[in-house]
Design a protein that fits this description.
There is one protein chain. This protein is an alpha/beta fold. It has a domain of 63 residues. The protein is 25% helix and 13% strand. Strands 2-1-3 form a three-stranded parallel β-sheet, sandwiched between helices. β1, α2 and β2 form a beta-alpha-beta unit. The protein is extended.
Length: 133
């Protein structure tokens, strides 16, 4: 039994979907045998509306030389220590880069204030958001 389970988990074919796409059972799709799925022309299933638009990201920097990089711990255990190690790496390997270690205010999963993000936009050239654990 254990070998069969390991073979299925470790097999690259274990998670390949072979049938038509659709909702997982019990996840908001039509009851089994009641039709549904995607409309003829493709697009989202009826009633779901348009997919969300992709977020826009800042343009990539050509170099980090003489730039200010914020290293932001978002609050998971060990994150601040990791950012300090990353700061040490920058000092040893890219000394022209100025790093600023900060901890995101508020809860790990919510941002109670936007002051940090405004500071990064105003004073920084790049940011690394990280977790540890």
């Amino acid at each position: 039994m254990a070998k069969q389970l390991i073979d299925k988990v470790m097999s690259p074919e274990g998670g390949v979907q072979t049938g038509p796409a659709g909702f997982p059972p019990g996840m908001g799709g039509p009851p089994p045998g009641k039709g549904g799925g995607r409309p003829e022309g493709g697009g989202p299933p009826p009633g779901l509306g348009a997919p969300p638009s992709a977020p826009s990201f800042a343009n990539r920097l050509d170099t980090l030389k003489d730039k200010i990089v914020y290293l932001v711990d978002i609050g998971f255990g060990g994150g601040y220590e990791f950012m300090q190690q990353l700061q040490k790496w920058f000092k040893e390997n890219m000394p022209s880069v100025t790093t600023v270690v900060k901890r995101k205010p508020g809860n790990v999963f919510m941002d109670d204030k936007s002051d940090l993000w405004e500071e990064i936009k105003e004073k920084g050239n790049a940011a690394v958001l990280g977790v540890a654990g």
